[in-house]
Design goal:
Blueprint: H1 12-16, E1 25-26, E2 29-30, E3 32-33, H2 44-56, H3 67-86, E4 94-97, H4 100-115, E5 121-124, H5 134-143, E6 146-149, H6 160-167, E7 173-177, H7 189-198, E8 202-206, H8 218-221, E9 225-229, E10 240-244, H9 246-251, E11 262-265, E12 270-272, H10 286-302, H11 304-323, E13 328-331, E14 341-346, H12 351-360, E15 363-364, E16 366-368, H13 373-379, E17 384-388, H14 395-411
Parallel strand pairs: 3-15, 5-6, 5-7, 7-8, 8-9
Antiparallel strand pairs: 1-2, 4-10, 9-10, 11-12, 13-14, 14-17, 16-17
Helix pairs in contact: 2-10, 3-10, 4-5, 11-14
This protein binds ligand C6P.
């Protein structure tokens, strides 16, 4: 290791050994996967759970009375219980969606269309992913509401005084990322909820970049809605989760309608099932849910606090090592206010070129606007290069990244 204290308490290499894809060599090189912010790789136990579900327990849920169908239903609802426990929620308030994007749209349509009207304000932050901006823009356009953005401080944290100023507008909702997918900023969501509730606003938290990396207790946070996406939590694609406060969910109309979510259907009207099924129209991703259940079980076995401590130390190590790279700008706050994400730019080199050159050596990072174009505008850059870490990331992989950046600088004669 070239900087910082060695990481002793957490055996990331042993964790990495559980990921088949991380054993791959491409062109004679081991894959250095630093793109878990885009999607997490899957440990063998998750792949095996999916395989098991398809091989031995596949039948449509909530329908058949035969053993296979009962098994599939039990496994689906068992996964819901496991995932609910993982985020400190009740199963009835843990709704399966396709991803966090759908979770946010569900709230924007079912709650927003009923509760936000002309002249109302929705408060967002400039660091939101498009998934937590565009649904609110659509709602605002339809009902004549307006959006207001909390200012960022110089280091990429939210300016809570600016939030207080916006709360004087008596907004209906504050929608905020728990962790920014670009700046890595870990927002003080408990404090934001406290202030927003005192002003009479509800709070939706986009937990996509938080849930894989730290223990999240939605009830302790006090959020009215909290969403996350399965594929970033070491689970499969096609499944996400929306948690909502019971009385809000009960008062909301369904988002999507059709099969499975109904009580009775007559020629001209229908009734709905109770929570959470009222919001789960059509055949649910019941196999994927078992994969996500296995993923949170896997994370629980590692221990979220240990994972978080490891990733914090890794982020600190990365920030120190990257700070020594000449002509490199790092975006976002100090390690103690960050999740496992570091975005940066090399002076005079397009972020895509950086990612492309690193990619030739199988160092997988993401470059682009990261679905956060308003934030890019605020930072005054077209794009950044981003390294994001996971439980399996080792300090040696950070060293490989830093060596790769030295090669990029040599190529561009910086
Ligand atoms: N961010 C990234 O590389 P979906 O597509 O619904 O699974 O996740 C959307 C999403 C919402 N909020 C945040 C904070 C996110 O980071 C993401 C996904 C990926 O940063 C893909 S753009």
């Amino acid at each position: 290791m070239s900087a910082g204290a060695p990481i002793r308490t957490f055996d990331a290499a042993a964790v990495a050994a559980q990921f088949p894809i991380l054993q791959r060599e491409i062109d004679g090189r081991r894959v250095v996967y630093l793109d878990s912010g885009a999607t997490a790789q899957k440990p063998a136990s998750v792949i095996e759970a999916l395989d098991d579900s398809y091989r031995l327990h596949n039948a449509n849920i909530h329908r058949g009375v035969y053993t296979l169908a009962q098994e599939a239903t039990e496994r689906f609802e068992g996964a819901r219980e496991r995932i609910a426990r993982f985020i400190g929620a009740r199963p009835s308030q843990t709704i399966f969606t396709k991803n966090v994007t759908e979770a946010i749209n569900l709230v924007a349509y079912s709650w927003g269309r009923r509760n936000v009207g002309a002249g109302d304000t929705i408060v967002l932050t400039p660091m939101e992913h498009h998934a937590n901006i565009v649904p609110w823009q659509q709602l605002a356009r339809e009902v004549g509401a307006r959006l207001a953005y909390v200012e960022l401080a110089e280091d990429g944290r939210l300016d809570l005084d600016a939030l207080d100023t916006l709360l004087k507008l008596e907004p209906k909702l504050v929608a905020v990322a728990h962790v920014s997918n670009v700046l890595g900023t870990r927002n003080p969501v408990e404090e934001i909820v406290r202030r927003a509730h005192a002003a009479g606003a509800l709070v939706l938290v986009d937990g996509a970049q938080a849930v894989p990396h730290m223990a999240v207790d939605v009830e302790a946070i006090g959020a009215d809605f909290y969403g996350f996406t399965g594929h970033k939590v070491y689970g499969p694609t096609g499944v996400g989760v929306l948690y909502g406060r019971r009385e809000l969910l009960e008062a909301m109309e369904p988002f999507l309608t059709g099969g499975d979510m109904i009580g009775q259907v007559d020629f001209h009207e229908s009734t709905w099932k109770e929570l959470p099924w009222k919001f789960e129209a059509g055949t649910s991703p019941y196999i994927e849910a078992t994969g996500l259940g296995a993923a949170v079980e896997w994370l629980d076995a590692l221990g979220l606090d240990a994972v978080h401590a490891h990733e914090q130390e890794l982020t600190r190590y990365a920030l120190q090592a990257l700070a020594e790279v000449p002509r490199l700008t790092i975006y976002g706050p100090a390690a103690e206010h960050r999740g496992a994400i570091v975005s940066f730019a090399l002076d005079g080199v397009h972020p895509h070129d950086v990612a492309e050159i690193l990619g030739r050596e199988q160092i997988c990072v993401r470059a682009g606007h990261h679905c956060a174009q308003p934030l890019m505008r605020r930072l005054g850059v077209p794009a950044t290069t981003r390294a994001s870490f996971a439980a399996h990331t080792t300090p040696a992989e950070i060293d490989v990244l830093v060596e790769g950046l030295a090669r990029v600088r040599r190529i561009f004669e910086l």
